[in-house]
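Practice problem 4.
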C-alpha cells in the first residue's frame, strides 16, 4: 500500500476513524490493535501487537488477550464500505450461535476474518497456531467451534457484496476514493 491503511482518508475521515465509528454503533467498548506510528489521539485504548510481524492472526490474538468480554467483534481498517447494520447482524448471529468464531463468507467463498466475531476462549487455539509458526488466519478454525455465515444468507439479509470490498494496494485505494466521490 505504501502507507498505513488506518491513516488513509476516505470521505473526510481516516479509515480508523470510520471503523471506530462503526464499531461504536455496535459495541460498548472499542480498542485499537497494532496501531501505526503517528496515530492521533482517538480516546480508545491502543494495544501494541503482542507478537509483532505475525500479521492479522497476531492482531486477533492480541485483541483477545487484552479483551475482558466473551464476544469480540474485530474489524480491519481496509473495508471502506462496511456497514453498522451488517456488524449488528454479525454480532446477533454470533450470540445466537454461541460459536467460538463467527465469520462471514464473501460471494467468491473467501472468509472475512477481519470482519468477524471471536469468543475470548478461542485465544488458546490461535496461540497454538502462532507458536507452530502458522500465521494464516484460517489455520485454527478447525480447532474451534466455527460458524461460517454463507454469502447466500448474507445476501438474503439484504447486504451488498460491496461491504467486503477491501483495499490492499494503492490502486484499490484510488478506486475506492473514486467510488465514494461518485455517490
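Answer key:
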Amino acid at each position: 500500500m505504501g502507507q498505513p491503511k488506518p491513516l488513509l482518508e476516505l470521505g473526510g475521515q481516516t479509515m480508523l476513524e470510520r471503523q471506530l465509528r462503526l464499531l461504536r454503533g455496535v459495541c460498548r467498548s472499542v480498542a485499537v490493535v497494532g496501531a501505526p506510528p503517528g496515530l492521533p489521539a482517538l480516546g480508545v485504548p491502543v494495544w501494541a501487537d503482542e507478537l509483532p510481524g505475525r500479521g492479522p492472526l497476531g492482531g486477533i490474538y492480541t485483541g483477545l488477550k487484552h479483551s475482558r468480554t466473551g464476544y469480540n467483534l474485530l474489524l480491519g481498517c481496509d473495508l471502506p464500505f462496511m456497514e453498522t447494520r451488517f456488524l449488528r447482524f454479525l454480532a446477533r448471529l454470533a450470540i445466537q450461535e454461541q460459536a467460538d468464531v463467527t465469520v462471514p463468507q464473501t460471494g467468491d467463498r473467501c472468509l472475512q476474518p477481519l470482519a468477524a466475531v471471536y469468543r475470548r476462549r478461542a485465544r488458546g487455539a490461535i496461540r497454538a497456531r502462532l507458536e507452530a509458526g502458522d500465521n494464516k488466519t484460517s489455520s485454527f478454525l478447525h480447532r474451534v467451534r466455527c460458524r461460517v455465515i454463507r454469502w447466500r444468507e448474507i445476501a438474503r439479509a439484504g447486504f451488498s457484496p460491496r461491504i467486503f470490498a477491501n483495499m490492499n494496494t494503492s490502486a484499490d485505494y484510488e478506486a475506492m476514493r473514486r467510488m465514494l466521490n461518485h455517490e
